[in-house]
Specification:
The complex is a heterodimer of chains A (276) and B (438). In chain A, 37% of the residues lie in helices and 9% in strands. Chain A has 276 residues and is α/β, with parallel strands linked by helices. Chain A folds into two domains: 149 residues, Rossmann fold, CATH 3.40.50.700; 108 residues, no CATH class. The longest helix of chain A has 13 residues. The two termini of chain A are 36 Å apart. The model of chain A has no long low-confidence stretch (mean pLDDT 88). Chain B has a single domain, classed as Cytochrome-c3 Hydrogenase, chain B, CATH 1.10.645. Chain B is of the alpha+beta class. The longest helix of chain B is centred in the N-terminal third of the chain and has 32 residues. Chain B starts with a strand and ends in an 11-residue tail after the last helix. The C terminus of chain B is likely disordered. Classes of the chains: A alpha/beta (276), B alpha+beta (438). At the A-B interface, helix 1, helix 2 and helix 5 of A face helix 1, helix 4 and helix 6 of B.
Chain lengths: 276, 438
């Protein structure tokens, strides 16, 4: 089914997440007034009371982590022509997938103690494409408003959105940042290697996931003085597309970078292992 | 008269997160009257374990997109408390500034986009684009100003990048602060226009009061957001370290989030609680707005939380101008690019308490000798409000079923929950860590 009306109907739904991506839509300020000229918002629980099951595009924020969530998401998939993942939690599992690497009984015990049996949740948090087919992805934590608009326009025009498949290092070099690994000459190279071996790179001075992380953010965290945290997820085929020059210079392998310092990649790493 | 009532609001709209309102009455006898919280848990207190002190504010910022700056600051304060890290006066002022920005952003979003439609008789803010374009543009301008302010100080409106243990990785320039001060000064007309709109419609709030306890931070220095001790309208003050004796969280069947109580069966946190505890420290212009609505301490009408939020927005603007004046008078001390403060790691436990838009927020971390987190606890404002919402409903419903039709009761209850501006996805990762030595 394809939308018949000129003005497509869009809906927003949220699962396990912080609603920060929907907030980026609300934060478009005056541009929202332009947006509602070209689309009909028919379902957006965070800001409106009206609800409708008749929509063309469903934007999904948050990870899926329970049977109840999964059933609700499948229902949305049936109603929508296009399903778009909004932000890291929906697109790649994101920050929620940190716990995927922790034993689930320990996770439950730490948070709920004696009440753990009252909680219904999966032992891992999953991106939405682990449960339903997904037509478009807006990466980032939070999403970038321009990329959101670009993905929506592309879908409506029947084109593939132009999303980078190269790493953040490419953008970072264009921005002429000092490489994070070179910020503190005394602490680096050997020190980074040692810290990675110990599983605690943050202790060795700044560590950066730019070499393995999908670009498209304009390296904004490095521009703001910190490091790339990996929020846009791994580049496709990290072994081919990672930034080899930076990795070689500091004696790091792709596996070391993505396995030892990891906030957003939990689900993606599992998938990579399963493919191999 | 509605002797038979069946109200079943699944996924209440225009609030953050997922909550239900259930009321059942037959022949005037109430069989069910519940505020239910039904969010999938996210397990943050486990997620942070085994991570470095440098990552915790980045992870816990993701508890809530709307109050990500407040979570980041509560997190940094807990880490800095545990590691005995002092920050400079300049950094403290900049942090107070960005907390004002977030409070403004969140309150303007709530009052203007989420609460106002109830008073205007619409289901969302969207129809106001054609029916009240000037009013809506005023709200949008204030919302954009607060977002631009967050971006200027923190590098981004949501999930700030520059806020790190010990200070900032990058700070704004004096020119940027001068420009911001100008825009804050120029917002006076918009603030007045917002107060006009709310005053013209405020009789749409249901007439309701219930005496309760109000808890917030308080400080001798200012109307407390960033720093202070715990204050209760019932029982006086407590040091922040004693927060668990104040919050007393407990599990209830109807909710995946915990409830809290201190002196009574419930208490309230948020803008109204802050105003009730710290009214005298409001900026004069903010007090002027409170007076227009007859809002003075101690006010026990939860719907006045909407008004208290507007009063706080005015205070945020005025106090931000004052902070920028101080920063500029003292001269902004420059720092290196990609700045990272030196921090000596040591084992220990630290607690951070910060006022975020919805109320008092606590982060509590324990670190080992390598600066790796071994235990964490966060007490979220909305958790502390759940029991108060429930108790308000229990008072409101018995009166209403004898005097109002069902659809009016339903709207009143929805407006009641919205008045608390709940942030349900924040509140629903239960927080239970046993600190045996307390």
């Amino acid at each position: 089914m394809k939308p018949e009306s000129v003005k497509p109907k869009v809906a927003f739904f949220d699962f396990a997440g912080c609603e920060g991506d929907q907030l980026q839509v609300a934060n478009m300020e005056e541009k929202i007034l332009d947006l509602i000229e070209v689309v009909d918002v028919v379902n957006f629980r965070e800001i409106m009371t009206e609800r409708s099951d008749d929509y063309d595009i469903a934007f999904i924020e948050g990870s899926i982590a329970s049977d109840h969530d999964a059933e609700r998401l499948k229902g949305i998939r049936e109603n929508a022509s296009w399903v778009v993942a909004l932000g890291s939690c929906a697109a790649i599992g994101g920050i929620n997938s940190i716990r995927n690497a922790q034993p689930y009984d320990l996770v439950q015990d730490r948070v709920y103690g004696d009440d753990a049996d009252k909680i219904e949740a999966w032992d891992v948090a999953k991106p939405i494409d682990a449960v339903v087919d997904v037509d478009g992805y807006v990466y980032g934590c939070p999403i970038n408003q321009d990329e959101f608009v670009h993905v929506v326009e592309s879908l409506l025009q029947g084109k593939d959105p132009n999303i980078p498949t190269y790493p953040v290092c490419v953008e970072c070099k264009m921005n002429e940042n000092v490489c994070v690994f070179a910020r503190d000459p005394e602490k680096n190279a050997a020190n980074i290697k040692q810290a990675v071996d110990n599983g605690s790179p943050a202790e060795a001075g700044p560590f950066c996931l730019g070499p393995v992380t999908r670009a498209g953010c304009d390296s904004q965290c490095v521009n703001e003085g910190t490091t790339c945290w990996g929020c846009r997820g791994l580049v496709p085929n990290p072994n081919e597309n990672a930034h080899q020059e930076v990795l070689e210079k500091y004696g790091l392998s792709v596996d070391e970078v993505m396995n030892k310092f990891n906030l957003y990649f939990g689900w993606q790493q599992e998938e990579l292992k399963n493919e191999q | 008269m509605s002797n038979n009532v069946n109200i079943d609001v699944e996924y209440l709209t225009r609030v953050e997160g997922h909550g239900n309102i259930k009321v059942n009455a037959t022949n005037g006898k109430i069989e069910q009257c519940e505020w239910q919280v039904i969010e999938t848990p996210r397990f943050f207190e486990s997620m942070v374990v085994d991570h470095s002190y440098k990552e915790l504010q980045h992870i816990t910022s993701r508890i809530c997109g709307i109050c990500s700056i407040g979570h980041t600051l509560a997190s940094l304060r807990a880490t800095e408390d545990a590691l005995d890290v002092d920050i400079s006066r300049q950094d403290e002022l900049l942090r107070k500034l960005i907390l004002h920005a977030e409070n403004m952003q969140s309150h303007v979003l709530h009052v203007g986009y989420l609460a106002l439609p109830d008073l205007m008789g619409t289901g969302s803010v969207l129809p106001l684009a054609s029916s009240h374009p000037e009013e809506l543009k005023t709200v949008i301008r204030l919302h954009r100003l607060s977002n631009e302010m967050s971006e200027l100080i923190g590098g981004r409106t949501t999930h700030p990048q520059r806020l790190i243990p010990g200070g900032f990785s990058k700070i704004p320039t004096e020119e940027e602060l001068i420009d911001l001060r100008e825009r804050l000064k120029n917002s006076t007309n918009d603030l007045t226009a917002c107060a006009d709109v709310l005053e013209a419609t405020a009789d749409g709030f249901p007439d309701f009061e219930r005496e309760t306890e109000f808890i917030s931070l308080t400080s001798d220095e200012d109307y407390a957001f960033y720093d202070g001790i715990i204050a209760s309208t019932d029982t006086g003050t407590y040091p922040v370290e004693d927060y668990l004796d104040v919050t007393n969280e407990f599990v209830v069947e109807q909710s995946t989030a915990k409830f809290a109580r201190n002196n009574r069966a419930s208490y309230m946190v948020g803008a109204l609680a802050r105003l009730n505890n710290n009214y005298d420290q409001l900026a004069p212009m903010a007090k002027g707005v409170a007076e227009r609505f007859g809002l003075k301490p101690v006010n026990h009408n939860p719907f006045m939380n909407n008004v208290a939020q507007l009063v706080e927005v005015v205070h945020n603007v005025r106090d931000s101008i004052k902070i920028i004046n101080t920063l500029l008078d003292e001269g902004l001390e420059a720092q290196d690019d990609y700045y990272e403060p030196e921090i000596e790691v040591k084992p220990g436990r630290g607690i951070g308490a910060v006022e975020v838009p919805r109320g008092i927020l606590f982060h509590d971390y324990t670190y080992d000798e390598n600066g790796i987190c071994t235990a964490a606890n966060c007490v979220i404002p909305t958790n502390q409000n759940h029991a108060n919402i429930q108790k308000d409903m229990e008072k409101m419903v018995p009166n209403a079923i004898n005097t109002k039709p069902e659809d009016e009761i339903k709207l009143d209850l929805e407006m009641l929950v919205r008045a608390y501006d709940p942030c349900i996805s924040c509140s629903a990762h239960h927080l239970d860590v046993e600190f045996v030595d307390d």
